[in-house]
């Protein structure tokens, strides 16, 4: 059974067709309704966005309001662009990795070369802890001895060595001892401009000659202590 109100309302409804699907439905006269349901309304809104692809001509409904030109990423060329960009990025990563490996190898090579040079003599032989190898040290000693011998040739040939020994009495002019092996020493070394003359040559023992080396007597600040030490040794021996 139907009440009077529902009967009056049903009599007042107006029949019309849906704008989207075409089905007949009843609506009130005061309501401007053109779709039978919400689904038809949403479908109508989507169909209003329908357009054709600018590349392939296929009709499609874009998902976004601004994307109205191409139906897919392939038509838009985005996939191709991304693949090209991906290849470029991969090539850049490979190049960066190769450059890093080359820099690492160069750094290792420089480090190994520095280590090799620090352990090698100038001739290329092994010399750990020293600047010269055993052979180079031997050659240097021989060269130094040859220069010394050539320097004292003039003393022996001219008879200056004998006159100096007679003048000094065969006594070391630095420590005052009488050495078994007499050597000649230049007060002012020849390396500093000293002359090979009797006034610049004196008798010296091997030890004093080695200690003095290429210095002048004034440069040996501890020379008085050395003389005192030598005197004490002479006294103890007696």
What are the main properties of this structure?
rod-shaped; 238 residues; DNA Binding (I), subunit A; 51% helix; mainly alpha; two-stranded antiparallel ribbon; single chain
List the topology elements.
Layout: H1 4-12, E1 14-17, E2 24-27, H2 38-48, E3 51-52, E4 59-60, H3 73-76, H4 78-118, H5 134-158, H6 160-168, E5 183-186, E6 201-204, H7 206-212, H8 223-237
Antiparallel strand pairs: 1-2, 3-4, 5-6
Number of DSSP helices? 8
The secondary structure category is mainly alpha
Strand content: 5-15%
Quick one: CATH class of the largest domain?
Mainly Alpha
- Largest β-sheet summary: 2 strands, antiparallel
Give a written overview of the molecule.
It is a single chain. With 238 residues, this protein is mainly alpha-helical. It has three domains: 1-48, no CATH class; 56-118, no CATH class; 159-237, DNA Binding (I), subunit A (Orthogonal Bundle). It contains eight helices and six strands; from the N terminus they run αββαββααααββαα. The protein has helices at 4-12, 38-48, 73-76, 78-118, 134-158, 160-168, 206-212, 223-237, and strands at 14-17, 24-27, 51-52, 59-60, 183-186, 201-204. It has a two-stranded antiparallel ribbon. Strands 3-4 form a two-stranded antiparallel ribbon. A two-stranded antiparallel sheet has the order 5-6. A hairpin with a 6-residue loop joins strand 1 (14-17) and strand 2. The chain is rod-shaped and about 160 Å long. The termini are far apart. The model has no long low-confidence stretch (mean pLDDT 78).
